[in-house]
Amino acid sequence: MLGKARVLINGCTLPVLIHSHSYVHKNGDLTEEFGGESWLPQTRQVGCSSGYQMHNGICYKAFTTPKNFHDASSACATDGGTLAMPKDASTNTFLLSLKNAVDESGFFWFGLVDHHQEGGWEWVDGTPIGSFNAWEPGEPNNAGDEDCAEYFPTAWNDAQCSEADRKFICQKIPTGCPGGYVYHQPSRLCYKAFNEKTTYSGAVAKCSADGGTLAIPRSPIINKFLIYLKNAVDTTAWFRFGLTDHHHQEGDWIWDDYVALGNFSSWGPEDNCAEYFPGSHSTKDTWNDGPCASADRKFICQVYPLGCPPGYQQHGHNCYKANNDKKSYDNAAATCRADGGSLAMPRDKATHEFLVTLKNQADRSAWFWLGFNDQSQEGEWHYVDGTRLGSFQPWYPNEPNNHGGNEDCGVMIQDEENNEWNDHGCSTELKFICQISLQGHVVRLTFLDFDLENSEFDLEFDHVTVVDGSIDKQLGKFSGTNLPPAVTSSGRTMEVIFTTDQSVTERGFKAQYRAVALEMLEN
Known about the structure:
Mannose-Binding Protein A, Chain A, C-type_lectin-like, Secretory phospholipase A2 receptor-like, 4 domains, 523 residues, Jelly Rolls, disulfide bond, mainly beta, single chain, eight-stranded mixed beta sheet
């Protein structure tokens, strides 16, 4: 009878040695010897929770309990989301049907404000309103400090945020965020404002326990979203975020991911640890340098979501999505950038074949834009990241031919079998494939010592199997005395399985694993 021992490894957000294992036989029994600190994976569910309905990859729910705008925001945050953001006509129509099913004549808050500048309407994720709106004629009119948006009952209206008789609609993006965290699509990170007080080091420890860091508002959009989140929890409290100068020279401010502050900041008037001024302060929502040891500050954490964003599928260290909307090359590229990525760049046969499968699932007969062009110089084909095409170039026979003198953009065509490349006019509206890189860390397992029974016959006796937990793929199966090569997962989980027939006792094996930042891996 075979005995098995399993260890599930979860990549954290810091590239440090986490844990080591040694498996040995003692008196005929399989035991484990552990070294270092155990780091257990968190369970993260993807999909709409009870009462929510999905539209275009986002989950929505209309709530009937009347609240003011702040309390409605707080209720959505507690549920792991934000107030709903109808950024396009399709979503707006869906939200109207959702609210009308609950209360056709009711007024409902949604996530649009002009808190920061009168008339400068922004979504609660920090992004500007954009070209679509559905304002009631004559609105918004700011008739008495009206800075929050509502359905009135079918068109949009600006209202006083303190109005306490409004119902509301929440949205949640179904990603692999830990419980209580809210996914922020522009930054592709999960955030949570904690309603508890601690020191800077205590806040760092709390965030680290969730596999993250203190939040890093590196851009105005992220900064505005964190202000929204913290105010949904407590408008009168100080909230820490991940910026200090206490590890460095005074005034040399460094983010908690060890990157310099950069050009964006939002300091108030004058300590060593950054925090938001509370909403009751005259300089509310700006930054302050406060005392790191003070235990009366709340805090905001950020973590990477597990896996790909909604609608995307993982291949290697990237996520891909075939879009059925038809757009020009430039507009398709802009759509991908809005998702935090680019048009897809298939650099090898395996990726190309994956994209063929993806496009065929969407539309087998359609042509799809890809991320390469010769717009800068005719015949000089580059990927959209600026690198030249490599040796892998599956052009259709006699392509590229620049037919008509204006075919400068790359496309995957449907040609019965091969789905090869062609050059095409960039203004044509076609479907397209987007690519974004996975964020966070993967697991790299390195064997330090290895001495097992040599399983020569299809590894039927003692052996170690390493499985990629993200895609359920075997990465290696090892036995004998040769030191196996290092193996790297495609995501944040790896499973190590030791199987034995218990007939021979050897020294066993020892391995260590690291959480490695994806940007540190070679392409």
